[in-house]
Amino acid sequence: MNILILEGSKHWTGGAKRAFLLSRELKKHGHGVIVVCPPKALLGEKCAREGMAVYTFMPIGGMGLLSFLKILKIAKTHKPQVIDIHSSVFYRTGALAGKIAGAKVVFTRNVAFRKSFIKRKINRMMYALADNIITVSQQIRADLVNDFSLDPGKIEVILDGIDVNEFDVAPEETQKIKNEFSLGPGNALAAGVVTRMDKTKGHGFLLEGLPEVLAKYPLLKFIITGTGKLEKEIKNRARQLGLEKNVIFTGFRNDIPAILSAVDFTVMPSYNEGLGMCILESLASGRPVVGVRTGGVPEAIIDGHDGVLVEACTGTQMGLAALLAEGIIRIMGMDLHKLGENGRKIILEKFSAGVMAQKTLQVYGGPKI
Length: 369
Hints:
44% of the residues lie in helices and 17% in strands. The protein has two domains: 2-161 and 352-364, 3-Layer(aba) Sandwich (Rossmann fold); 164-350, Glycogen Phosphorylase B (Rossmann fold, 3-Layer(aba) Sandwich), CATH 3.40.50. It has helices spanning 14-28, 42-49, 65-78, 91-101, 117-127, 138-148, 171-180, 203-216, 231-240, 256-262, 277-284, 317-332, 336-350, 353-364; strands at residues 2-6, 32-37, 53-56, 82-85, 104-109, 132-135, 155-157, 190-194, 221-225, 247-251, 265-268, 289-293, 307-311. By secondary structure, the chain is an alpha/beta fold. It has 14 helices and 13 strands.
């Protein structure tokens, strides 16, 4: 089976990671995979190294004629049986090209953004182009049904999957990270924050709550990885709050498994999240997570079992900030090792890349892996 995957993220997002792991699993089992993504996207580089056909161009949202023609040409060249569209910027162009090329059209929905009244009407017509829709959580599925009056029967929930082996890190790699960031002997602990610095990811709320946390645990360090639109603003706010000794900004890193192995737990402050690939990666590393009860996050974090959940309070900045501070203080008093063991078991049972690929192939109508 030939499968064309369209992913519009320029950065190495959770959606891009899902697309890569899915593509790699499908190719491993003999399927032809063709990937379309923006120029210089890490997804394209990684897929090309795996021997997949990769096409790169900057997608145009809505009904971009140039994007449509490029996708149609790719579809006519490779004759895919399925076009799986992972980003909304490709939904219309990819779906129409797929219909003309005679391919089955699948939308994969990774995020939980709700739409206003007018956009609901417009998007309802767009979703009608899909033969099937995959969502990464039950909450996104429910939102699509409620917002767009979609047939629940054509929406399948397939949880994100990850390669657990990627997070088995050698002790010397862990120590290298600890040396780099002076995470060190004694009773001082470290928390990781592994997500891009965009509005809904909640870094601002986290920073506002840290003075309360550090008043109780003054040696606790926060290792914040990644970049994003709000990077400058977030770094400035950390300086204004006097957090330089406790908050370390690493920039983009390609050694996330090693970083996760060097911290004691992670914080995912996002208040609007489909599921959160970084949550799964943390749990796969045996590191419990403080997260916000939103989207599919409760499907991975079970409060008190493999982490701590706080309520999604976005009415005021200090509301969520206080809740995150409370959650961090709470997890600091728990058995982090036991929580981490529980989290890794959940990943092995529910979130493997192989299971994700098998269930996705069933939606495509292909043979079992």
